[in-house]
Amino acid sequence: MISHLVVFLFFPNRIYCSPCLQAKDRTKKLTLLVLLAVIAMSLLTLVISGLLTISVFKRNASGVQSMESSSSPDAATIHYGIVIDCGSSGSRVYVYYWPPHSGNPADLLNIQQLLDSQGKPVMKKVSPGLSEFDDNPDDASEHIKQLLQYVVDYIPKEKHKETPLYILATAGMRMISKEAACEDENVKIGVLAVKMLPRFYGEYRSLSNACFPAWAIRKSSPSHLSVAHFTMPRLSAIERQQAIGRLNAGQSVADVARALQVHSVTIHRLARRYQATGSVDDRPRAGRPRILTPRQQRAVVRSFRQNPFQSAAAVGRHLISTRNRVTSRQTVSRVVVRADLYCHRPYRGQVLTARHRRNRLNWTLAHRQWRQESQEAILKDLQKDVTKDFDFLVAENHFEVISGKTEGVYAWIAVNYALNRFSHTAGDGDMIGVKLADGKIHHRSRTVGMIDMGGGSVQIAFEVTNEEQMQKIPSQMIAEFNLGCQEADVEHTYRVYVTTFLGYGANSAIDRYQAALARNATSASKARSSSKKSRPLPDPCLPAGMPLTTEADEEKPARSFIGTGDYMECKARMELLLNVSVPCSRDPCSINGVHQPEIDFVRSQFYGFSEFWYSMEDVYRKGGLYRYPIFEKLATDFCSTSWTKLEAEYECIKSAWMSVVLHKGFRFPITYENFQSAQLINGKDVQWTLGALIYRTRFLPLRDIEHDLKYHSSHWMKSQVFYNEYLIILCFVIVLAAIFLYMKRLRLCPRRADMSRVPSMSYFMTEENQMEQGVRYIKGNGYL
Q: Bridge partners of 81?
C-alpha cells in the first residue's frame, strides 16, 4: 500500500499510463520525421523542376553565338547553300555551310565557306558570261550545269532537297534593259551602253523608260542611225532650276522631261551645260564682245600651256573674275584652236576609245532586236532545266539580275559578318548607340565601311546612324534592311549609304587620262610638224624612262610618250578627273558632285579592297594598315625609279589615282589611321555572295527556333507529368503510413474504460472495515 502511495505521489501517471504515453511520444516523433521527409522531398522536386525550367529558357535565350569557324562539318546536322555569281566575264559558284541555329532569335546563322580536302574553298569559274547566250537561251542551262555538277559531290545527297540554290546575275545581264529596244528605228541603236556608261553625277543609269540616244557613239555612228535633231525650247529660270533640282534628287532625265513637259534632249543639254559651267543662267547674247583683245588672247593661250587639262568654261569664268570680261566657252575654244591647242572637256561619262566604240557598235547592231524577253528567256531556261536535273531547293526569286546597289550592300554585309560586327554582346569591341523609331537608344557593335576599287568602277558603303544625315541622303543612295529572323528585330536593322561610281576605277582612270593627254599632244605635234622626227611627249604618271605608244585609229595617229616619274605632278593631273568642282546640291559632296554624308573619322573604320590591296601589298609590300606619309614616300620613290628596273609599269598612275580618290574624292584626311587594305579577312576570302546568302537565308532560323521550342515544350510537359505522378504516389504512401501509425497507436494505448481506478486519500485514512462516504467497492472493478 505504501509503495502505491509513493508511486502515486511522485509518478502519478507513469504507473498506469506509461505504455500509452511512450507510444504517443514515439508516434509523434515518427510523424514529425515523416512530415519532414515529405517537405524535403517536395522541396527537392520543386528545385529540380525549377532547374529544368531555367535550363530550357537559358537555351532559348542564351548568349551570342560564336562566329568562329566550326570544326569539321557533320553531314547529319550541317546545312548547305549554293550561290552562283553570273558576271560579265564568267560565272563562279560558291558553296557555304552552317551548323544548326542556336535557338536565340538574336543570333545569325554561322555561315562559313566550304573547304575541300586540301583546305581550299570550293569554287569554280566557267566562261563566258550568261549575257553571251542571248541568241541561244537554251544553252544557258548547259553553261550553269558545269558548275552544279562540280559542287554536287561536296554536298551529301540527302541534303540536296533542303539546300537553297541562288543564281544571281550582275554586270553582264544588267546590260539588258527592261525597255531595251525602242519602237523608233532612229534610236534603236541606243541599247548599246545600258549599264556601261554612267548616269548623271556618277550613279548607274537606268534606261527602263528611255533608250540611250544614238549621239552617244559620236562619229562612230553610221549616218542612217543618227537621231533627228530637235529644237531646244526656251526654259524659264525657274524651270531650269527645277530641272537641275530634280536631277540632283535622283530622278532620271526622262522623268524630269515628262514632269516639265519638254523633250529629254532639252534636259540632257541643260544637264551637260550645268556640269560644264556650273550654272543654268541664261547665256549672254547681244552686247558681249565677240573678239578678245590680243593681250587677252595671249593670256588665254598662256593659261592653257601652263595647264592643258583645264576646260574652256573654266578659263572663261577666270576672265570674268579677273578682267571683268564676259567670255563664252566658244570664244575661248576658238582662241585655243587657232593656237593649235585643245581644251579639256569635262568628263561626262566613261571615255570610250575608238576601238571600244567600234566593239559596242557591232554588239549593238547584232542585238538590235534584243528585248527584255531575251533576259527572261535565259532565266526561265535556267529555272526549268536546273529544277529538272537537280534536287536543290529553288524558287522563282532565286534566279535574278541584281542591281549594282544591291551588290554593294551584299559586299558590305559580307565584310562586317567576317569581322563579327553583327554580334552585339557587350565587350565585343566598340559599341554605338542607335536611336530607334520609338525614341529609345539601342547599343550594338559599330560596323565598318568598305571601299572597293575595281578596274571600271569604285564603290563606297558605310552605315549611317545619324537621323539628321538620313534626311539629307537621296533615297536611291540609302539601303535599309533587316538581317534578323524577325520583322521587328531592331538589333540587326541597318541603314547603309552605298554609291557606285562607274568610270572611276583604276583602268578607266588610266584610259581617261591617256585620252586627255593624247588630245593635248595633238597640238604639240602640229607645232613640231616641220621637224623631221617627233620626240615622245613627257608623261609624269609613267615611271621614269618608260616609253608608251598609243594605238592608232581613224580619229588620230599613234602617239608616243616617255615617263618622267613625277608623282606629285601626276596626282595634280589625276585630281582633275574627279570633277570635285561640280556644284553640289547637298553638302557635303564627293566625286562628281555626288552627295556623301559626313563620316566620323575619329571612331569609324574602313577597309579597302581590290586595287587598294594590289597597290599596297603587291608593289609596296605595305598591305594592311594605311599610313599616308609612308605610302606617299613609297609611291614617289617607285615612280622615280628607272622603268628598266620595274615590272609593274602602271602602278605609278594607279597609286596616284588611289590617293586622290581616297583623300580628294572621298575627303579622307591624310591623318586618318583607321583605313586598311585587305584581301582576306580572318584568313577568308570575302565575296559579295556570302552577304547575299546571309540576307536571303535570314528567316531560316525560325525553323530551328520553332523546332527547338516544340522539343523542349514537349520534354517539359513529359517531365511535369512524371513529377506529378511521383507526387501523387508519395502522397498516397504518406496517407497509408499515417493510417498505419494511427492503428498502431490504438493498439498500444488501452481504452479508458479498462484503466484501473486509483483510490483517493480518504481511502487510506479510514478505519479498517470502514467505508468512506462516497466510496463504493465494486467487486471485480475496484473502487469508484
A: 96
What integer pLDDT is reported at residue 486 of this predicted model?
A: 74
Low-confidence ranges of the chain (pLDDT < 70): 1-38, 40-75, 171-172, 174-234, 282-291, 320-326, 342-353, 364-373, 424-429, 436-439, 488, 521-534, 552-557, 644-649, 703-728, 732, 735, 739, 741-784
375 is in an annotated binding site: no
Q: How many CB atoms lie within 10 A of CB 221?
A: 18
Whole-number Å distance between alpha carbons of 666 and 500? 12
Q: Please state the CATH superfamily assignment of the domain spanning residues 77-176+371-402 in this structure.
A: ATPase, nucleotide binding domain (3.30.420.40)
pLDDT score of 606? 95
Strands (E), 503-625: 537-539, 547-549, 560-563, 606-610
The three-state secondary structure class of 426 is coil
Query: Grid coordinates in use for 364?
Result: 549593238
Which pLDDT score is estimated for 104? 77
Q: Is 457 annotated as a binding residue?
A: yes
State the CATH architecture for 505-585+609-682.
Answer: 2-Layer Sandwich (3.30)
Give the side-chain half-sphere CA count within 13 A for 488: 2
pLDDT at 16: 43
Domain 77-176+371-402 matches domain 505-585+609-682 at the CATH topology level:
yes
Q: Is 456 annotated as a binding residue?
A: yes
What backbone phi and psi angles, to 5 degrees, belong to 538?
-70, 140
All 3 cell numbers of residue 210?
Answer: 528611255
Cell of 672: 586618318
User: What is the predicted pLDDT for the residue at 447?
Assistant: 92
Kind plus residue range of the DSSP H or E element containing 172: helix 171-174
Residues carrying an active site annotation: 407
Give the Cα separation of 203 and 594 in Å (integer).
Answer: 8
Q: In whole angstroms, give the CA distance from residue 313 to residue 4.
A: 141
Q: What is the pTM of this model?
A: 0.59
Assigned C-alpha cell, 413 = 554585309
Compute the chain's Rg from CA coordinates: 44
The domains of the chain are located at 2-60+708-750, 77-176+371-402, 505-585+609-682
Per-residue cell: 33? 520525421
The whole-number pLDDT of residue 106 equals 75
Planar angle of CA 759, 760, 765, nearest 5 degrees: 110
Which pLDDT score is estimated for 284?
Answer: 57
Q: CB 568: neighbour CB atoms within 10 A?
A: 12
